[in-house]
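Re: beginner question about structure tokens

> Can someone show what the tokenized structure looks like for a real chain? I only ever see the sequence side.

Sure, here's an example I had lying around. Input first:
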Amino acid sequence: MSSSDQSSSHNVFVYGSFQEPAVVGLILECTPVIVSAQLHGFHRYRLKGRLHPCIAPLETGVIDGKVLTGLTDAQLENLDMIEGDEYMRKTVEVLLTDTSDNMQVEAFIWANKDDPDMYGEWDFEEWKRLHMEKFIEASEKFIEWKKNPDGRSREEFAKFVEEDPPFGGKKMATSEQSPSYNVFVYGSFQEPAVVSLILEFTPVIVSAQLHGFHLYRLKGRLHPCIAPFETGLVNGKVLTGLTYAQLKNLDMIQGAEYVRKTVEVVLTETSEKMQVEALIWANKDDPDMYGEWDFEEWKRLHMDKFIEASKKFIEWKKNPNGKTREEFEKFVHEDRPVA
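And the corresponding structure tokens:
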């Protein structure tokens, strides 16, 4: 192919760091025309120990992202190389946000759709705030390496991109260096006796309200869930100053039916707004959601059972002894009083 007219062009849907023009401009060595789009039927997951997300099929999922338009073969090859063999490039159909037109594009899908390292929901704004500078540095290193490998392998670059110091590790020696997380809770974790067992300490807890959500009961379960509801209001608590390990404990006990998102709450005592993490029910149209969950009723009828379940969870986490998480989950989810 001797002319640009003969070269093929590619449109690629991106959903992670490549939504940021400063990053994609370095990787592609130009800034393409970028348009907003939605991909239906997939969910955007966090990946344990990594800064970047992945996507995998989820029937009810919707991902907001960008389409990089008019890429050359060489630029597409750059994306293939930086993503590595854990992703598969596939043709998918997206919906363009501005025009509502459908568009066939390429997208990088996580090869192992059952990867246990996938969890929660990756947040672009959080990434920009916490990790963008690191990714720009990584992008610069990638370009340097591609132009002059000098005997180094791609794995050295991959290790740099995948390392996640803000989530703890050898480089984080003191509590002052470690990040902390604030998590809005609305069910059994409002009860200090439960949360202190799960986290193995009692954090500072403040009251807060979350607008735009409703607190539902779940058929056959002791615990509630929340899902978007335009006029809804959920009263709950914020667990402040959690470590990443404590946050991971909450993720583990809640399981894959919840996705962790950043939301804004209003603190009850000061009326100040606060950005926090919250665990949202993944299936917002779940027919098992009904009514309104009641914290005082739960304390009266089920708290003792949950404290027992929390002890079993900690025992299991320290010594699984061949048992699966499902055995603990069954114990927590069973709802004898309404059966």
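Each token stands for a local structural state, so reading them left to right follows the chain. The chain has a mean pLDDT of 82.
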